[in-house]
Structures are given as C-alpha cells and as structure tokens.
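Annotated sample (chain length 224).
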Amino acid sequence: MATMPPSHPARQTGPVLHDWFLSDAGRAVLASEEETVAHALSDRPGLPWLWCGPASRAVPDGGGRGVSLQPDGSGRWSGPIACGLPLPLPSESFGVVVLQHVARPSGEYGPALLQEAERLLVHGGHLWLFVLNPLAPYRWRWRGTGVIASEPLSWRRRLRSAGLVPDAVSQGLGPVWSVQASVGLQQGAGLRAAYLLRAEKRTMPLTPVRQRRVMQLPQGASAA
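Output written by the structure step:
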C-alpha cells in the first residue's frame, strides 16, 4: 500500500523551489504554463518585459524584448545580469512583469519582490503572478520538499500592500494529479496545481482634483 511522503518543516528557499521545478512534477507545471506566459510577454507590445522564473527557459516566438532572471538561492538573481534587490533596472520602464513561482509569502523573495514589480511597471502595466495551489491534489507531489503554497486571498492582500490592484478572480492552470502538462485556463484556482493572479499598477490622486471652470467669452470678443 502506497504511503504519503513524510512531512518536513516547511521552508521555501531558492534551491528547494528551483530543484522541485527541475523534477518531472515541476516540469509538468511549467509546461502547462508556457502558452499563458507567452501571452503575458506579448501583453504590452512595444514595451519591454521582466520575466522571473525558477529555471532558464527560451523566450517564446513573438515574445518581444525583455529581461529573464532566475533566483540563485542566496537572495540574488542570475541571467543577463547578476544582482540582488533592488534590481538595477529603471523605474516605470516595463509594461509587464511575470513572477512565475518565485514570489514567496516572506523571506528574500517575499514582499520586497512585489514592491520591486510595482516600481518597475509603467502606469497601467500588469503583473502576472503564477503560484502553486495549496488545495490541489497535486500538492502531494511537492509535499516534504519545503515548497509552500498560499491561497489567492492572501496573495491579493500582499499585492494590495505593494500598491497593485489585483483581479477579483484567479485562474487555475496545470495538472490536477497526473504528472503531465495540462494547458488552458479555468475560472478560479479549483483543483489545478497552480493559478494565475493578474494585478495592475494604477495611479490615483491622493485628493480629488477639481475640474477647472471653463471661462465663457462675451459675444463678439476675440479669443486671440
């Protein structure tokens, strides 16, 4: 009779997450997300994107231009540049930021990473956040590895704290139990292995702006 893997104290350091996504189970999740990531990278044509993921992956055709980074497990990032936070990238210069299974509830890839995403996005830009689903049967595939999953409500609170406006509904993607890619999105996380939350960077004035009164010119007066 099969038994469940033993449970170990939960942690979500860089090497743990990276190693799990190199397993067959992790690769199936990433393969399920390829089409959605490609759509994200082309979401704002003409503007560069930032794609942070657990492993180096090829940029899909039509993906435009941007920067792809991977965590190295020590709180730093590798890719075209090797750096830590804050990222040496100009503020408000990216139309899209994709955080694919690299954001954590806390730690070196926690709230500061969401705040960096907010800083880098142009006004009206989108953050695409891919995270694992704690209610999915697939969680037994990462149980005991130290990988932590969190529900959509908690992530929405974190996104708002970072100054972003999250979508009201998450979208589930990935397999339910079988270790094989399952493409396509569904409304709500459901029982899928992962889900997507999108958030927008908006700018609202601190105080209401009064509309200037339009001055009417007297009849016969020149507007010159």
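Annotation: The longest strand covers residues 121-132.
Annotation: The beta strands are 49-52, 66-71, 77-78, 94-100, 121-132, 165-166, 171-173, 186-187, 194-200.
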